[in-house]
Amino acid sequence: MTDAPMKIPVDYKESSEVLQKYLGIDGSPVAFKFATKKEDIPAGMEELDKTIRHCMMVTLARKEKKAFYATADKHECNGGAWALGLKELTPSLKTGEFYFKLGKFASAPACRRTIEHIPHIATGETYATMYAPLESTPFTPQIVIVVANPRGMLKLAQSTLFTLGGRVHSEFSGIQSICADTTAQTFITGRPNFSLGCDGSRKFSGIADGEMVMGFPAEMLPELTAAIKVVVAAPGSK
After folding, report:
1. Residues with Cβ < 8 Å from 75, sequence gap 6 or more?
2. What three-state secondary structure class fits 115?
3. Using 50, 70 and 90 to split pLDDT, how confident is the model at 99?
């Protein structure tokens, strides 16, 4: 198995418990990893047995505690599969026609300009995507995805600034929130990213009206979980 652990060991079970306790999230934080080849998948890990969207796969791990992997043919959403490096960008997405027809932009060029700025993994670099509840992940995650209410996200944001301070910088466009904003972009930049979600993730995967989405590099887990305990208990916290 090629799933090498991090140089600095991380207790994923304890990290998950901290995130759930201090952020008040509904369900588990989700461990995610890009598999570049079949050998990256842990022995015994099951392949998803249906074709759904990436955001719905995240929900299966978050709410139903399922661990699995999904190859390109199991990804229903073409935009999500493209962002994750599994499929080519379809012509209707590339030209802007797809989202223009959905009424989300004043013109196809406005949509095209948005699509051209969406972060994505190079097509063909991903063999499969892997998902698991963080507390029982059978693989070493690259990204941790958290769905929480604004108060929980506030504490996460404060925790990312706890050590060095500064400002939170997030990028999103109201489309492809979980696939591009909090997974692909986070992996590419190595920085946490907050997203308001999108119509697709809210419609199909159960992201509630009162919830937001955040992805951060798994390497940040020790730093974030230590900071969250302090930030939440701080005299100035609500």
Report:
1. 51, 52, 53, 54, 81, 84, 86, 87, 129
2. helix
3. confident
